[in-house]
Write a structure and sequence with these properties.
The protein is an alpha/beta fold. The chain is built from 19 helices and 17 strands. Strand 13 and strand 14 form a beta hairpin.
Length: 618
């Protein structure tokens, strides 16, 4: 009820509030069935004696812990929604495996929420023990026949409650979803169920393609090849279906490649892209290089952004390949490709590179050297997520000066951290901070200031003229919105700078996955690879321009004037859009080919990962 009141403007009507509450009772019963069926059935058969008292204590602990966890999840839900615009889900699980970084962030920025959670847990523990101490666990005498009958009855009742359906399939969230707003749909669930369901899906990710309907492998591959075809260059392999020979536009000496991946920098913060005027340095740089006005991220997390710009891999409902087991080696990345072209390869990060499994993924896929916080020399400022962006860029500048003295070109992925909750940064950058210093807006201002300082220093260096720089965001911050896919929260800045890069504005619809192919072309690196992104140095027909957006379990194939939305176990939808929002819903029956095409590309990531189809040839 609290969430319905707080977000009533998103819900829209009292009828929908009633709908949420009634369906919410159904979900609550499902969770109760999952948590309490086993202890209730066991409790029926516990008899008096020492042995029974031992098991009674175990069951008591189970029941109390279950109630405590349910209460805890609801207490932390409001803060989670503020950050991610949905109930706790898979993201909650992902962050649990990095307690040092997460608890440091929580303590710095969410002390009130921690206090409320602690009080809620203490109260729940006390009440649970009081309520349960005189219940079923202490009153279990009875004839065996009575127990058998009661057990059968309880099995039937618990099975009905847990399945919550007489249909072929048991309950799943799509059965109670009714809104085009993902946040509103999540209100129907409770956070305990949401996290348990996410954990179940995570454990069976190989079958994630079932969300959108099945297609034959050859049909999936045909869709991907058709979508990636730019100039008729033939695909060359059945074992690596997207392998082809890419001819670079630049034919001179191979250039260095540097990707400056910006944390949580959505287009809405960039003045030159129509957003808030928080990035004067980036806005000035936009006038000096090749700027893209309609670039879109593939997802909502950093590992998804890394996946897109470092591997060129398309998004899907599973986790990013950065975190999946089968992609920890022999998976295509820019580093693995450039390594074969005599590049030195490097990753520079202000935090600790083990976070989000980055270190394992990078070292297993072509990165020779990792410079993270543990290797930085006397950083001047270290916050919850690591060294400040100024420290990061200072280290990067030192590395580039040293690498440039070698006889081989270098590749470096530099990943910033300062623009992240709880927004900790030093006073050493002369940005115009306003209001509460520890705010997202001021963190953006600081990150922009640090970026501007670095580029000015790089422009004066010996390595500038021989380097292609890509400045691009990993994702927007707090991707929220009432649409099935909030398109405006996927729009990001993208800019290419460096020696020989002409200043121009590019208004084409482009995706993060287009940039790996493009920077290889600008750097003069030709060869065979499985990238499906377009080479933006060349023409891309309007009907071929697209972006792929993964928003939770919703997938959008975004074209120039319409978007196909795939939803888990629900019919596809098609909308017109204006680049920021979904507008009018169209008759999906008139877009059957586009829907098949979108589904094929949505399933490609699962297929390619599971069967090892995205790699370099032996």
């Amino acid at each position: 009820m609290y969430l319905c009141i707080t977000y009533f403007d998103r819900i829209g009507s009292f009828a929908d509030v009633v709908n949420i509450l009634l369906k919410g009772i159904r979900v609550d019963l499902v969770l109760i069935g999952y948590l309490y069926t086993v202890p209730l059935l066991v409790g029926i058969w516990i008899s008096n004696g020492k042995f029974s008292r031992f098991f009674s204590r175990i069951l008591m602990a189970w029941l109390v812990l279950a109630l405590v966890l349910v209460v805890y999840m609801e207490v932390v839900t409001p803060e989670f929604i503020l950050e991610y615009d949905t109930r706790p889900n898979r993201l909650f699980i992902d962050y649990l495996i990095y307690p040092q970084e997460v608890f440091s962030m929580l303590w710095q920025g969410y002390k009130l929420a921690i206090l409320c959670a602690a009080c809620g847990i203490a109260l729940a523990s006390f009440l649970a023990k009081k309520l349960l101490s005189g219940g079923v666990l202490s009153s279990n005498a009875g004839a065996t026949g009575t127990k058998v009958g009661f057990t059968i009855l309880m099995i039937l009742v618990c099975a009905l409650v847990t399945r919550s359906s007489l249909q072929h399939r048991p309950f799943n969230p799509s059965m109670v979803y009714f809104s085009n707003d993902n946040l509103v749909n999540s209100f129907v669930l409770n956070s305990g169920y949401s996290v348990l369901y996410a954990a179940y899906n995570t454990s069976s990710e190989a079958q994630a393609s079932d969300l959108y309907g099945r297609m034959r492998d050859d049909a999936v591959i045909a869709s991907v090849r058709d979508g990636a075809d730019q100039s008729g260059v033939p695909f060359e392999s059945d074992e690596i279906p997207t392998l082809r020979t890419h001819q670079a536009s630049y034919q001179g000496k191979a250039k260095n490649i540097v990707i400056l991946l910006q944390e949580s920098l959505g287009a809405r913060y960039v003045g030159s892209l129509g957003g808030e005027n928080l990035t004067p340095n980036l806005d000035a740089l936009m006038e000096k290089g090749w700027r893209f006005t309609n670039a879109y991220a593939t997802g909502t997390r950093s590992v998804r952004g890394i996946e897109a710009v470092f591997t060129g891999f398309s998004p899907g409902p599973s986790r990013s390949v950065v975190k999946l087991d089968k992609s920890q080696s022999d998976f295509f990345t820019l580093a693995s490709f450039l390594e074969k072209h005599d590049y030195s390869t490097q990753f520079i990060y202000g935090g600790e590179s083990h976070f989000d499994n980055m270190k394992s993924f990078f070292l297993g896929n072509g990165v020779e050297d990792i410079q993270d916080l543990t290797k930085f020399t006397n950083p001047k400022f270290v916050g919850s997520w690591g060294a400040s962006d100024q420290d990061l860029y200072e280290e990067a500048h030192k590395q580039f000066l040293a690498l440039n003295k070698r006889s081989q070109p270098f590749f470096s992925l530099v990943f910033s951290t300062s623009n992240h909750s709880p927004w900790e940064f030093p006073d050493s950058c002369p940005a115009s901070f306003t209001g509460d210093r520890a705010s997202r807006e001021n963190a953006v201002r600081y990150a922009d200031c640090a970026l501007g300082e670095f580029i000015r220093k790089a422009e004066k260096s010996d390595y500038w003229k021989d380097t292609v720089f890509l400045i691009i965001a990993d994702h927007d911050s707090r991707v929220t919105g009432s649409n099935l896919v909030p398109i405006d929260r996927f729009r990001i800045p993208a800019l290419i700078l460096g020696g020989g890069i002409e200043a121009k504005t590019d208004n084409r619809l482009v995706s993060q996955i287009d940039f790996p192919t493009t920077i290889l072309s600008l750097a003069g690196v030709s060869g065979k690879h499985p990238l499906i992104g377009f080479d933006l140095t060349k023409e891309v027909a309007a009907n071929k321009q697209r972006a792929m957006l993964q928003y939770g379990e919703n997938f959008s194939w975004l074209g120039v004037d319409h978007a196909v939305i795939l939803r888990p176990q629900l019919p596809p939808k098609v909308y017109t859009h204006d680049g920021s929002h979904l507008l009018s819903e169209l008759d999906a029956g008139g877009y059957s080919e586009e829907i098949v095409h979108a589904r094929g590309n949505a399933l490609w990531s699962n297929l390619a990962y599971a069967k090892g189809l995205y790699r370099l040839p032996d």
